[in-house]
Amino acid sequence: MIHLASRGLRRVAAVGKGQCSRQFALTVDQLPAAIREAEYAVRGAIVIRAGEIDAQLKAGTGNFPFEATVPCNIGNPQAVGAKPLTFHRQVLSILTNPSLLDDKALDFPEDVKARAKTYMESFEKFGAYSHSKGVAHFREEIAKFITRRDGAHLKAGDPESLFLTNGASDAVKYVLTMLISSPDDAVLVPIPQYPLYSASIRMLSGHFLGYYLDEESGWSTSAATIKDTIAKYRKDHPNGRVRGLVVINPGNPTGQIMDEKDMEEVVELCEKEGIVLLADEVYQENQYTAKPWKSFRKVALEKKSNVEMFSFHSVSKGFYGECGIRGGYTEAMNIDPDVLDQLYKMASMSLCSNTLGQATMASIVNPPVEGDASFPLYKEERDTVLSGLKRKAELVTKRLNEFPGVSCQVVEGAMYAFPKIQMPQKAIDAAEAKGQAPDFMYCWEMLEATGVVVVPGSGFAQKSGTFHYRTTILPDEAKLPAVLDRMQDFHIEFLAKYT
Q: What number of CA atoms fall less than 13 Å from residue 258's CA on the CB side?
């Protein structure tokens, strides 16, 4: 039994049979509305249910038509069988246990030892706090990568413009925190969007301002659409300020790579309107078609633009998938130095990001090169992962488009497909009767029938009247066809049930 106490908003709750009830000083009612209302779909109710099913299967108490769930809800490569790259893990092994340098039985390659020694000379104690922006040597290594990637003829990367963070997510939150100071401060985010943005903006009590990608043209970005969205917001909110514009390239959850012309128009728009550009580029090495990828930094430099920009990268994605190590960075370009001082202050409040994540970020963007002892194995591992991802992207696109009433745009990059479902009216009515979004009901029933965990499109925002879900392309290549078979069988049965 739960009820409101007469004093304040405390609840009196029974805590178990035979135990006394207790009063809680902190209750859900007392939490800020921004916390209660924020949602993060990729680890929402369906994922919680998947955890319950896993526990039942492990205990032998569950009665399900499958032996294990398949987590296609999140871009978490190693959780579904991906192996870490040998070179970077050998370097990390030495950083965490320097005595391994003298262990002749391990026989680490010389380039591994050399890198580990260099890292330990630049930062002797990995169990100590570092500079709040990150170890200087690691920032220098990342700056060199940026220079190589975009071209030294444009502008060299600057270590002082870099902040190393616990994955890209922390960097995004820092920037959003600086952009939002009132409920009238809006941030433009592509729809479909990654829920980090909607949840963070809501937590900061800002205004989430979605601009729609065009599904029929491969989830393309239209500057004209963005302009119309801005104009409508300013008309409806006379005191409103559009503070930032998020681009996710390659796309999450949509898997597209932006056309360069669209990128140029976005840069022009942001510069003209005085909007800060947030370039989420954590999937920049996940490319599966001939369509080229280019950084927003390079586009802006080529246009000699003064657009204010934060770019984000991470060790979690790419072909390395070191999600749990939590390494990432943001690079600031054309940002007021006084603002960067405030960003430094914010980073200092957490002292520093984890030092092993910093080292991994620096190492991953500076892999072995031809002539290094580790290069042959590194190249083999890299090519194996990327070629496998390319084949899986093609297979997932092909198979999903074979499902009756399902259409899926080409997966050009990132790690996801975002298929659209033609939902039967009977299913829509059934979902509404349950108080659920139709695609949520679809994904819930898919989990119960197949064990495959996907995320409903309603968790990412989508055009009204359309229904989608996001699935990763990450399951083991040998097992993926069977996973898709289960999904297709379920889909056909779902249509039969609700038609």
A: 28
Query: What one-letter code names the amino acid at 304?
Result: K
Helix 110-122 to helix 136-150 angle (10° resolution) is: 120
DSSP string, 58-93: HHT----SSSS-EE-SS--GGGGT----HHHHHHHH
Question: How far is the first Cα of the chain from the last one, in angstroms, to the nearest whole number?
Answer: 41
User: What is the distance of C-alpha 242 from the center of its chain?
Assistant: 23
pLDDT of residue 2 exceeding 50: no
Kindly report the backbone phi and psi dihedral angles of residue 479, in degrees, each rounded to the nearest multiple of 5, phi listed first: -95, -15
Q: What is the tens place of the pLDDT at every residue in 408-426?
A: 999 999 999 999 999 999 9
If we measure between CA atoms, which residue out of 158, 194, 213, 203 comes closest to residue 176? 203
Task: Find, among 151, 198, 174, the residue nearest to 44 by Cα.
Answer: 198
Q: Go through the domains of the chain in sequence order and give each one's CATH number.
A: 2-30 (no CATH), 41-81+383-498 (3.90.1150.10), 123-364 (3.40.640.10)
Q: Is 116 in contact with 95 (CB distance < 8 Å)? A: yes
SS (H, E, C) 269-294: HHHHHCCEEEEECCCCCCECCCCCCC
**Residue 12 pLDDT > 70:** no
- Per-residue pLDDT of 59-97, as tens digits, reads 888 788 888 899 898 888 887 788 999 999 999 999 999
Name the percent of the chain lying above pLDDT 70: 95
Distance between CA atoms of residues 66 and 56, nearest Å = 12
Q: Which residues contact 447 (CB under 8 A, 6 or more apart)?
A: 46, 49, 50, 53, 69, 453, 454
Rg of the chain on CA atoms, in Å: 24
Joined tokens for residue 449: 């029938």
- Residue 471 to residue 36: CA distance in whole angstroms: 26
Return d(Cα 148, Cα 417) in angstroms, integer: 30
- Residues making up the chain, counted from first to last: 499
Query: Which position has the higher pLDDT, 401 or 32?
Result: 401
Closest to 108 (Cα-Cα) out of 377, 363, 356:
377
What are the tens digits of pLDDT across the range 168-202?
Answer: 999 999 999 999 999 999 999 999 988 899 989 99
Report cis status (omega within 30 of 0) of the bond before 192.
yes
pTM summary value: 0.89
